[in-house]
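Before we proceed, please read the two lines closing this message. Let me know whether the structure tokens fit the sequence:

…
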Amino acid sequence: MTNVDISPKEALEQFFGFTAFKGDQEAIVQSVLDGKDTFVIMPTGGGKSLCYQLPALMSEGTAIVVSPLIALMKNQVDLLRSFGGDNGVAHFLNSSLTRAQAQQVREDILAGTTKLLYVAPESLTKKENVEFLSEIKISFFAIDEAHCISEWGHDFRPEYRRLRTIFNEIKRVPMIALTATATEKVQEDILKNLDTPDANVFKDSFNRPNLYYEVRPKKDVTREIIRYVKQNPGRSGIIYCLSRKKVEEIAETLQVNGIKALPYHAGMDAAQRASHQDRFLMEDVDVIVATIAFGMGIDKPDVRFVIHHDIPKSLESYYQETGRAGRDGGEGKCVTFYSYKDIEKLEKFLQGKPVAEQEIGKQLLADTVSYAETGMCRRKYLLHYFGEQLPGDNCNACDNCLNPKEYFEAKDDLLLVLDAVKESKQRHRARFICDLLTGTETSEIKNYKGDKLKCYGSGSDHNEQHWMAVIRQANVAGLLHKDIESYGNLSLTEEARNFQKKPVPITFTKERDRVEDDSPDDDIVTGGKGGGAADERLMSMLTDLRHAEAKKHKLAPYVIFQESSLEEMTIRYPVTIEELTQISGVGAGKAQKFGKPFVDLIADYVEEHEIERPDESVVVRSVVKKSSNKVHIIQNIDKRLSLESIAKSKNLTLDALMEEMETIVSSGTRLDINYYLEDKLDEDAQEEIMDYFRDADTDDLVDAYKEFDGAYSEEELRLMRLKFMSEVAN
């Protein structure tokens, strides 16, 4: 499969059937091909795997990929083999293999067939493996889940910290390290441990606009989960629990309530875990219930909801686990049930550990509590945690933004907080500052003589929750700095000092009383079911065929063809293998391997229903020959001119221009007005309106205006309806 004479873009289409890279993928692939050490921080669903898989397929030798989970290795290997070529192109080497299987892996590597070898870090410590790898041609080392290297990471594994030493023992070749979640502190730790100070660093945005975040009070949680899953019939979901016992209990309860669910935790034997995972991937079951501690390596793109029965031990864990929803860019709902009792349980787990580890654990838990209890935009809080700023204060895709919030003028309260931080010498954490302001006598207050300070009790008219909210929002607003090295000590920023000199009005969000808040499931306001199939009947037939073929090949359905590829088949009706290769996500290898039954079904369907297939040689413009206005509009939209300019050039009002555009789109022509919408609506607002049109019974603008209670103008909704009709219907 190796071909170093083609460009990464050509290789992308040849191996994976995609015509364009996402985000920084192309630059990352080129960095690896150029032999540079590379460090990638890319959220779940951003396409990390391709960043090392493609250069491995293009390079001479075998890439060694370190991965912490056997289940994840198996997924990746199955996926790579599905794209065509010899099954020996990808292998894993771990404790699950028999001696004969391990020998076959070695033979394929020596024969030059294997381009990617997945290994567990433990496998690299075995002398025979080190000796074998020292003798072969290695293209580069890849470290997946690189956050496991850092003690500040949410999933620290001591064996990961030895990887650099082991790699040096084998041979010094370029390295790529990848993670979906890492704070700035963790990033520094990874680069230092791997001894790659000059690595090319690629950091993608942590924002996942298609995910909806909600935290609910932990009341009647089992009943609430059953209600929720039943309201999402046939949709894939993951439920995380704190203990193995709770996993078994919830899975069993779901089963007796008629829900197809299975448990998954480290206490089960490997064969049973593998079986349950495969049944989830093969869509024999809808829901997997799993322990947070174990951490699943589920690489399934169409998980539609992630429920946390218990709060995770850190925001990194939370981000990674919720990130398993909507990896295909479709809808993903993330619902967490929160009770402070869960935090107390997690604090007990820290007892008996080294003091430094306890302090790190407590700090991570404090950040999780802040997220769960905050009344501000959850997305904004989460992104700030990872060092990223979200513009504005409303993401329109979390419970805090979608439900009315109370605001208050925080100038005086903020000044009290900043004075307390300054007066206490900027060497205390948020809890101490809250106790200082409320005048609470604690051992820490006594030890540091806080009760002797001028600010002691100066905020006693408010409770600790109020002051914690002020501190939280001051931190996100850049007025306070929380030092991770000193486990969360607060200090003033330059902006804070300016504010103290010249205070100005500032608005903060009031925290909700979450004890009384028991929002029903109906309050989840987020997207529709997605789907862009032009022919639903054919889509249903193709989905059934994909399921049957998946069972036959013992692969997950999406490995055969992704849902978006099936949707495109219902638009273009490919009836030959060659035509199938033109479908997005279907390369030549995949078409040859799985395509025949699909094109046969489509050919029979087209004949039976006398369908006139689109002429593949004619692009969009074939429908616009009757009107010079239409040609002019399409040409100028292609040039990315503003709609106002296009209207003016033809002496049209904007309203009349949009009528013309609606006629063009309704006749089947796609108009790309994303460039114009970017200045009108932010990404989250666009996603919300698109979701509405996907689910709505009618495309009537009056109904849409009522649904959003006037939050968007008629013009904005009309433009989004045009975008929707172009992208989904056409």
User: Anything to note?
Assistant: DSSP finds 33 helices and 17 strands in the chain.
